[in-house]
């Protein structure tokens, strides 16, 4: 299962490194390329709840196989995109189906892992699962840099051999398929997909459309309104897509809130740290990926420790420790960004990673352990939807913070070099959008006074970018601080194993 989900984690970050090459060869616009990146994450967020429910109804092994096939076929087609007028449409469509395959695959794979291990050993097992799969996210930029040197199409083709091995291992594992004889809530699935898709789209496009855009708020408010209708509908249907009474469990609600605030930092940190390394530290894409490995060194070590704490003491101590360590790590990291020294920052980068490592597996595992009637696929779908939604919100909010702060600082820098205020503001906005949309630190060309002033000010602008990023990383520290107070709401203790599941593990039967 870890091998199967490896593809879905790598693909969250690998495409951003190859973006300049894809734009150049296929003649795409920067906004078009943003759609290629967002289509995957958008589809992932929209269909996670459906994937989790299908794992319960059809059996997790079957859904893992189908999800893997959808994902790898879509990957191969992304790599085979033709040049010409249809290139953008082709890429966006198959990136979306890639995300759909991942949304089927991940909750089903996690449901398999959960079902295999008894509750007293589940913490360590899922710590390894989340630790390894989380670390694979860091491989995305590193692998993307190496593969793009050959051809950017290889970033999609690499999934083919991985999928083949995953399917062989799945067949050899003889996984039992526990199915539920219930109907699929098609209306609920459509409502949650539209609601999640619309609201996430609004958050994703906020930096491009602007927070004052009617389209941005139409998507966000419209999506939230559809999600409200979904909640009302789910309370009336006999076999709902999501059993909302799971949120009556105080521990499950606390777990979900901690995951939400942790994910505000965890997924966005890949983007912001990578771009910071390339702009402010003048690092290559591969060096930027290595910078992120400090984060995952702390993450991987702490995730194993967090799993042991969960097994012995429950999720509450691990979540409290993780939020405190993470908040301190991100705050210290933010305070040292303007040193422009990778070697001086690594202890704080590792500390921030350790904080996320301590809490990620315990919060996710405890939420699954408290599932209603051992409906692991469904509950995994809920927790992963929360995580993806938080990541989209974090990216949107922090991108806005970075863009506005960067614009103001660059404007001040250019004005101090004699550029008129209005021109400096416009140039500052262009630079901010360029560096936050694509990690490309090339200096402007041309002989005009603005281009000349910008070239002369590039070292100052790199410092401006570091200063602007400080507020982003302080924001991540605040998010984990809020997560700490959510962890205090957890009642403590460990979840009890459902009697039905315990009897099955004492006498395993292939269903």
Automatic annotation (TrEMBL):
Name by which UniProt lists this protein: MFS transporter
InterPro entries linked to this entry: MFS, MFS_dom, MFS_trans_sf
Keywords tagged on the record: Antibiotic resistance, Membrane, Transmembrane, Transmembrane helix
Residue ranges occupied by any Major facilitator superfamily (MFS) profile domain in the UniProt entry: 1-495
CDD domains: MFS_MMR_MDR_like (cd17321)
Gene Ontology terms describing biological process: response to antibiotic
GO CC annotations on file: plasma membrane
Residues that span the membrane, as ranges: 34-51, 63-82, 102-119, 126-148, 154-175, 187-208, 214-231, 252-276, 288-306, 318-336, 348-368, 471-488
Gene Ontology molecular-function annotations: transmembrane transporter activity
Region of interest called Disordered, as start-end residue ranges on this chain: 417-449
Compartment annotation: Cell membrane
Top-level taxon: Bacteria
Pfam families, per database record: MFS_1
Keyword Acyltransferase set for record: no
PROSITE patterns: MFS (PS50850)
Organism: Streptomyces mangrovisoli
Membrane-related topology note: Multi-pass membrane protein
């Amino acid at each position: 299962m870890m091998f199967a989900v490896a593809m879905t984690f790598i693909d969250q970050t690998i495409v951003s490194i190859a973006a300049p090459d894809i734009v150049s060869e296929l003649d795409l616009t920067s906004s078009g390329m943003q759609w290629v990146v967002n289509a995957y994450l958008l589809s992932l967020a929209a269909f996670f709840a459906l994937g989790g429910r299908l794992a319960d109804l059809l059996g997790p092994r079957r859904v893992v196989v189908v999800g893997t096939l959808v994902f790898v076929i879509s990957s191969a087609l992304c790599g085979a995109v033709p040049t010409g007028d249809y290139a953008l449409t082709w890429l966006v469509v198959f990136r979306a189906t890639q995300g759909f395959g991942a949304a089927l695959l991940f909750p089903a794979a996690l449901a398999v892992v959960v079902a295999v291990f008894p509750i007293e050993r589940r913490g360590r097992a899922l710590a390894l699962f989340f630790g390894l799969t989380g670390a694979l996210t860091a491989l995305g930029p590193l692998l993307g840099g190496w593969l793009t040197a050959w051809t950017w199409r290889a970033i999609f083709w690499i999934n083919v051999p991985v999928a083949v091995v995953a399917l062989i291992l799945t067949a050899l594992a003889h996984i039992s398929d526990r199915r539920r004889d219930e109907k699929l809530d098609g209306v609920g699935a459509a409502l949650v997909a539209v609601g999640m898709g619309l609201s996430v789209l609004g958050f994703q496009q906020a930096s491009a459309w602007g927070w004052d855009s009617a389209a941005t708020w139409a998507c966000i408010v419209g999506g939230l309104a559809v999600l409200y209708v979904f909640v009302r509908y789910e309370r009336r249907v006999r076999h709902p897509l999501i059993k909302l009474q799971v949120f009556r469990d105080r521990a499950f609600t606390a777990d979900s809130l901690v995951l939400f605030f942790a994910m505000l930092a965890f997924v966005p940190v890949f983007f912001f740290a990578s771009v910071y390394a390339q702009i402010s530290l003048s690092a290559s894409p591969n060096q930027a990926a290595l910078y992120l490995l400090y984060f995952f060194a702390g993450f991987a070590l702490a995730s194993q420790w967090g799993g042991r704490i969960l097994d012995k003491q429950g999720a509450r101590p691990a979540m409290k420790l993780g939020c405190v360590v993470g908040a301190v790590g991100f705050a210290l990291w933010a305070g040292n960004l303007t040193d422009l020294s990778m070697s001086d920052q690594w202890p704080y980068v590792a500390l921030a990673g350790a904080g996320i490592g301590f809490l990620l597996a315990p919060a996710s595992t405890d939420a699954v352990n408290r599932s209603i009637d051992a409906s692991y696929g469904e509950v995994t779908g809920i927790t992963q939807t929360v995580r993806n939604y938080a990541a989209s919100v974090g990216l949107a909010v922090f991108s806005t913070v970075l863009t506005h702060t960067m614009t103001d600082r660059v404007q001040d820098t250019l004005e101090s070099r004699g550029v008129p205020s209005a021109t400096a503001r416009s140039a500052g906005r262009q630079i901010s959008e360029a560096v936050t949309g694509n990690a490309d630190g090339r200096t402007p060309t041309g002989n005009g006074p603005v281009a000349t002033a910008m070239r002369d000010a590039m070292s100052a602008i790199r410092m401006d970018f570091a200063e602007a990023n400080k507020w982003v990383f302080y924001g991540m520290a605040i998010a984990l601080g809020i997560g700490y107070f959510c962890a205090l709401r957890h009642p403590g203790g460990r979840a009890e194993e459902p009697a039905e599941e315990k009897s099955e593990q004492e006498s395993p039967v292939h269903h």
